[in-house]
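> @MW can you paste both from yesterday?
MW: sure, first one:
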Amino acid sequence: MDTVSSVGTLKVVCPHCATANRVVRDKLGQGPSCGSCKEPLFPRKPFALTAATFDRHVASEVPLIVDCWASWCGPCLAMAPVVDEAAARLAPGIHLAKLDTEAEQAIAARLGIRSIPTLIAYRNGKEIARQSGSIGLPQLLHWIRTHAGAF
C-alpha cells in the first residue's frame, strides 16, 4: 500500500490490533482487512475502546462514533442491541465503538461524561457532535449519518 498516493487513501485504525492502515477510498466497500492482523477493518459490530487505544482511534481519518456506557446503567443496557444493529447497518467508512466509563474512568473524565448513555462523534481527531440519553434505531442511524456522514 505504500505505493498508493495518500490523496485517495484514508488512514484506518484496525479495531482489533490498533494498527494504522492506508486504504484506498474507492475500496472501502470491498471489505478491506488489516495489513497486520488480517482482521476486517470494518467489522460491522462495535468494538471496545481502552485508554491504550482511544487516542489512536479518535485520530483516525475514519469518522468514529463512541457509545459511552456502563454495565450498571439500565438505559445503556437497553440501548446496547440498538448500537449493535446500527453497526451492522452502517456502510464501511464509519467506526462504531464502545467506551466502558467504569473501566476507563480517566477517559470518561477527560471527555466530561456527566450522564450515560452518551454518544460522541469524532472526525479527524475532533469532537463534532454529542448526544446524551437513550435513542431508538431510526434516530441513532439518522444521528450517525447526520454527524459522521459516509465516504
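MW: second:
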Amino acid sequence: MNKNKKIVWIVVGIIVLVGVFYGGMVYGKSQIPARTGVAGAFTRGAGGTRGAGGGFIGGQIIAKDATSITVSLPTSGPGSTGTGGSKIIFLNSSTPITKQANGTLADLTIGTEVSVVGTTDANTGSINATSVQIRPKTPITQ
C-alpha cells in the first residue's frame, strides 16, 4: 500500500505542475501589450497606416489647404502598402514640422516628400498628425 501512495502522489504532483505551467502560459499571453499608435507604426514598413491607433505615413503631398495636406501612398517599391491611394493629414499650428532645420506649414508644398506620424480618425480614416518630417527628394534610379 505504501508503494501505491507514492504513485498517487507522483501523479498528483505531475497534474499540479501541468496546471501551474498552463496557468502561467495563459497569464503570460494576457500581459503582452497590443501594438498600436507609434509603437505599431514600425511593424509593417513605410507607407500606409499602422495599428488600430494610427500610424506612420510616407508619400508625396498632392494637395494642401490651411489645416490639412493630402499624401499619396506608394503602390510599389520599398515600404509600399501595395494599395496606393492617398490619406488626408490634419495639421494645426502646434504640429511639429521638421526638416534639416525646423519647418512651418508654408514648407508643406505640393510635390514635397513627407513622413507623418499620427492617429487615425475612426470615422473618416484620415490622420491627425502628431509630427511631420520633410524628406529630401531621392533620385529615381533604374
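> thanks! The chain has two domains: 1-32, 37-135.
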